[in-house]
Amino acid sequence: MSQTTTDAVIEGVFDADYMRNPHRILARLRAAGPVHRVITPNGLRVWLVTRHADVRAVLSDPRMSKDMLSADDVIQNSLLHPERSREFDKDLIKYMLNTDPPDHTRLRKLVSKAFTLRRIEQMRPRIEQITDELIAAMPREGVVDLIDALAFPMPITVICEMLGIPTDGRDDIRRWTNEIITTTNPERVLPACEAMIEYLGGLIEERRRRPTTDMLTALIQARDDEDRLDEVELISMIFLLLVAGHETTVNLLGNGTLALLRNPDQLDLLRSDLSLLHGAMEEMVRYDGSFGTATYRYTKEPVDVGGVVIPGRQMVLISLLAANRDPDQFPDPDRFDIRRDTHGHVGFGHGVHYCIGVALARLEGEIAFSRLLRGFPRLRLAVPPEELSWRDSILIHGLTSLPVRLA
To answer: Other C-beta atoms within 10 Å of 156: how many?
Structure first.
C-alpha cells in the first residue's frame, strides 16, 4: 500500500564525502528506500529518487513538471531558510529543460535539425582536425592536465563554431558557467549570470547586424521573423546549448579516461579491439556519467514513487548516478566492464528531455578516445587517484583536473 513518508529530512547528504565518492552514499540511500527527503547545498528540501525503475518512471511522468518559471511558491516553500533566498536572473532559465510540452516541444524543434545523426556526422572532419591540433600541442614530457589540454577545449570549440560564437571567449564562458552551475552563493552566481547575459546579448546584436549561416543567426531569425522565440527564450536557449554542448563531453572524456586508467584490464581490452569503443563509452556513461542528477522537477499533484506518495507542489531531484549503479538493473554495478549490456542506462536522461546532443557527444568521444588510445600506449595517471578533485556540484559530475603522463 502506498504511504507518504514522514517529514524527516536527511541533512548532510551532499557533503565533501559525497563530492569525492557519491556512489557509496547513494548506495546506502538506494538500499534504505526508494525516496528520501534531503537538503541540497543551496538549501532546498527535495525528494531524492534513487532506484533505476523509479528514476525511469519519474523522468517520463507528465505529473512531474519542469516549468520552473511557474514554481516560485514551490521553491520558496522548499527553502530551508526562506529569509536568505535571493531571486536568480530568469533570463537564463527559460529554456527547454525548464519547460513542459507544448513549450518544450516548440523549443526543441527549433534546434533538433542541427543535432540529427546526418548533420553531426558531417562535422566529423572538423572535429578530427580540432582534436588532432590539440593533441599535437600537448607536451610529451612531464604532466599534462587532460581536462585543460583536450577534454574542455575540444567540445567548447565545436559548440562555439556550431553556434557562431567566437572561441576567444571560451575561457570566460567556462568561468561563468562553472559559477552558475556549481556555486550556491548568490553573491557569486548573480554577477556570473549578468556577465553571461551581457555577453550573449552583445553577440545577438552583432549577428542581427551581420547575419551568417550559423545556428545563432537561425535562432535569431526564429525570434525576429517567425516570432517563435521571445528574447528571454533566445538568450536562455543559447546558454543551454553552450553549457550542455560542452559539459557532457568534458566529463565523458575526463571520467571515462579515469575509469580506463583505474581498470587496466579494460584499457588493454579496448586497446586491442577498438571496435568495442562504442559500447565502452556507454559503460563510461553508466559507470560515472557526466551528470549526477537531472535538473529539478516538481509534482503537479501527488505522485506514487516506488510505494511512496510524494505530495503535490514538492521539489524532486532524480539521481542518475544512483540509478546507473542499481544492482537490480545492472549486476555487479560497481564493476567497470566495457562489454556490459548497458541497455536502459539513464546517463543521457530519459523521456522527452532526453539529451538532444547525444550524437555529438558520442562522436566527440569516439574521436578523442581513439586518438588517445592509439597515440599514447603509455598513458597513465600522474597522481594517486585519491588525490584527484571533483567539481563541487550535485548536477555536474566531473573532475576539476586529470593529471596524466603521455609517455
So the answer is: 24
Q: Which three cell numbers stand for residue 102?
A: 507544448
Domains and CATH numbers, the chain: 16-405 (1.10.630.10)
User: Measured between alpha carbons, how far is 169 from 160 in angstroms, rounded to an integer?
Assistant: 9
Whether the predicted model's global pTM rises above the 0.70 cut: yes
Handedness of CA 16, 17, 23, 27 (dihedral sign): negative
Cα distance between residue 403 and residue 383, in whole Å: 7
Q: What are the pLDDT digits (tens) for 295-348?
A: 899 999 999 999 999 999 999 999 999 999 999 999 999 999 999 999 999 999
**Separation CA 295–CA 317 (nearest Å):** 7
Task: Calculate the CA 378 to chain-centre distance.
Answer: 30
Q: Which pLDDT score, from 0 to 100, does residue 69 have?
A: 74
> Phi and psi dihedrals of 213, rounded to 5?
-105, 15
**What is the rounded CA–CA span in Å between residue 170 and residue 172?**
5
Give the torsion sign (CA, 94, 158, 109, 358): negative
Between CA 147 and CA 158 the distance in angstroms is 15
